[in-house]
Please model this.
Amino acid sequence: MPWNEIFLLGRRKSRHQPDPATSGAGEQHTLQDTRAAIEELSQAVRNNPESVEIYLALGNLYRSQGEIERAIHIRNSLIARPGLDPTLKARSQFELGRDFRRGGMLDRSRQAFEDASVVLGRTEDIELELARLAADSGEFERAAEHYARMGRSMAEAHFLARQAGEHFRQGDVIQGEKFLKRALTVFPASPEAWLASVVQATLSGNTDLLGQSLQNACANIPAPQRFMLLEGLLEALSAARVDNVGGTGAKALNREQISALVQASVRMLATFPPDTLLCYYCAKLFLFEADLENAKHWLEKALVLNADFWLARLELVSLVLTDQDLTHFLRDQMSYFISHARKSKRFVCQACGFRWDKTFFVCPRCRSWHSILFRQEFS
Model:
């Protein structure tokens, strides 16, 4: 029986069983399927010890189960086998690199990939693994170089922007701006690069620079992604008004400076066509300043554009609570409900449905780039 059919045998066995009632049961079935496949492949190896393909498949299954030492042992035994075809040896070295990376042995992983590339060449798979290793090691410029070789400008710009952020944090503004310029040259619609520009302008306290950065950013990136800029803007404002700004090289800003930045931001955002999320974030900026009347105004504008926008309704309810004559018990219950509703995960991956309470540029589940959306309607 071919090795790939053996690999699928355990999964085929479970197809005649009822669907699991819960996700936990589903995970248990998947685990059982994988263990069954390991048993089948182990038996096949005993029956045909010369089959390299079966060894490779068995090592991959061990790695998927987190049994890294067993996977590494299998790769090393293949690499050391006398007379092994160079291509098969290189494939074993490539899988060994993946094993080392999964086990956190990054230097050994990089060396295994380099060894594999001697025979296989700098294939896209090898470049991708080396890019991920560089990113995991904090070598963002090197990661960008690997993505550039693959022609992936979106990812290249992402890591150039991260390198710019590192320079800004170290107080090297000139180098930071240099990397931002490179990122935007590679991918002009990079939300990561524009976000870094907006954050740096905010922390500098320069209202003109912030207004210009926001204008350029909102004009260049797709409208559904603008909220990532504004989330970052709010976080930067919060950081800027706290003493010792986390080593960013910026000084803490006083209340007047913060207020000027908020006003400049709202003025610039108001120049764009009406948009539910832009209105919502204008309200959030005014809430940051405790300007409740202006916040209500922008929340109401957001609801005119989308009556089902749940977060705008939630914020409005929170604002009017103080004006209502409620019993102490009812006020506590409403406050409890609002505080917990605010914890709902606002962001979702449009590719796989993954939800999170923080913004992301790459989906943690399906690894899609820039697939994030703001959940405007509650479900």
Observations:
- Confidence is low (pLDDT under 50) at residues 1-23, 244-249.
- The two ends are 48 Å apart (CA to CA).
- Strands lie at 347-349, 355-356, 372-374.
